[in-house]
Design a protein that fits this description.
By secondary structure, the protein is of the alpha+beta class. It is built from four helices and two strands; from the N terminus they run H-H-H-E-E-H.
Length: 84
Amino acid sequence: MLSTIGRKILQHISSCDSYVSGEELSKICNVSINTIRKEIDLINDYLRGHGCFIDTKIAAGYFLTLDQPELARPFLAKMLKEFR
């Protein structure tokens, strides 16, 4: 299960079409960039096996990548609906 911060991060990243900076996420969640990094790791552990992960790129930020879209889309739709 994701924390409240983890849910906010995943919701925001999944709604963006490009990379989201750690600084932007830290402002949205009102936490440090180190906390964002730790939460991203926890989110990726949670997403493992569901066809998606949050990609990390230095100087770009974070982006939700669907490596198995047929598996990831229904999972993410259900999970994000539950967060609302």
